[in-house]
Design brief:
elongated; about 20% strand; TATA-Binding Protein; 3-stranded antiparallel β-sheet; about 325 residues; alpha+beta; 8-stranded antiparallel β-sheet
Length: about 325
């Protein structure tokens, strides 16, 4: 049986290790890659051997254990020019990633080639390990050899298929008490649209696949009788452009084409048919489930409000 304290030591050797100021020539590039979330086999062997965690006899077992526990995942993208890496393993370690700022060339949220974003609120609390775990989940399922993802501790663009990438990010909001709250943001990007003004949106099949993968990963947190991670699915409200705050509406399902907002003092109907079209059931599926058209067109009142002058718990009616 593996001692829990021993397990902590095994993980911390590559997650929290500080890159030396003057590393040897053999490991200089490996330490540079580690700070970008890429762990090479030679460096991992050295770290474990130097700390007497492993003398080489249990290396494959420990690697398999780290993969099973979700701390690392196999990296299928290797450089053709790095001859020394041929035949060697390398891994992604999202827990080592640095914060990424928005790039100038990054497509805006209102680009037609990116789906409308869906946000997830975790009742004011976002577990630190959730975002790295999601990255691991997508890399394990959809990673393609020869295609490197864009990774950071608060942003990831990941390969889904030949025509789509997944964009995940952590967006920060400030509560009334000046506390930082993070929402997880998810969007699907169409990669075969090279023109930012393209009106070709992501396919509904890709959007549903991403939605299912993300929300099933939340359900895994309940495995083993654990309490799990409660979450609410929400979307930005169109009234935010008229207010000094960010207003979100809870999106319980995708059967409704309209939501009602009263934040501006007037009842305004918000069209959400794009979410229904991309993430909801098809018309045939709606009929099979007995969903009436009158029910779909009935506006629902939004429930979630997040802004710099509003208490998060009150906004969620907790």
């Amino acid at each position: 049986m593996l001692d829990p304290l021993r397990l902590v030591e095994i993980v911390t050797k590559f997650v929290t290790v500080v890159s030396p100021k003057y590393p040897s020539a053999k490991y200089r590039r490996s330490f540079d890659k580690l700070d970008k979330g890429i762990l090479e086999e030679d460096l991992l062997r050295k770290l474990w051997k130097d700390s007497k965690v492993d003398n080489g006899k249990n290396f494959e077992f420990l690697v398999a254990l780290m993969i099973q526990l979700g701390f690392i995942c196999e990296r299928k993208t290797t450089s053709r020019h790095d001859v020394k890496s041929v035949g060697k393993q390398s891994f992604f370690v999202p827990l080592r990633l640095a914060i990424k700022t928005r790039q100038v060339g990054q497509l805006p949220d209102d680009s037609q080639s990116i789906s409308r974003p869906i946000y997830y609120d975790f009742e004011g609390y976002l577990p630190d390990v959730l975002f790295p775990y999601l990255i691991i989940e997508f890399l394990n399922k959809f990673q393609k050899e020869g295609v490197d993802p864009i990774l950071a501790c608060n942003y990831a663009e990941l390969y889904l298929n030949e025509n789509h990438h997944v964009i995940l990010s952590l967006d920060k909001f400030i509560t009334k008490k000046d506390e930082r709250k993070f929402l997880l943001k998810m969007a699907i990007k169409r990669t075969d649209s090279f023109d930012e003004t393209s009106k070709e949106e992501p396919s509904a099949e890709a959007c549903k696949l991403v939605l299912s993968t993300v929300e099933k990963s939340f359900e895994h947190s309940k495995d083993g009788g654990r309490r799990g991670i409660p979450f609410k699915r929400c979307i930005p409200c169109q009234c935010s452009d008229q207010l000094d705050k960010k207003h979100f509406q809870i999106l319980e399902d995708f059967t409704c084409g309209k939501l009602m907002c009263t934040e501006t003092g007037k009842s305004v109907t918000m069209d959400v048919t794009c979410y229904k079209r991309l993430f909801g059931c098809s018309s045939d599926e709606d009929q099979n489930e007995g969903t009436s058209s009158s029910h779909q067109s009935q506006p629902r009142e939004g429930k979630l409000l997040v802004d710099k002058d509003y208490d998060m718990k009150k906004s969620l009616n907790l």
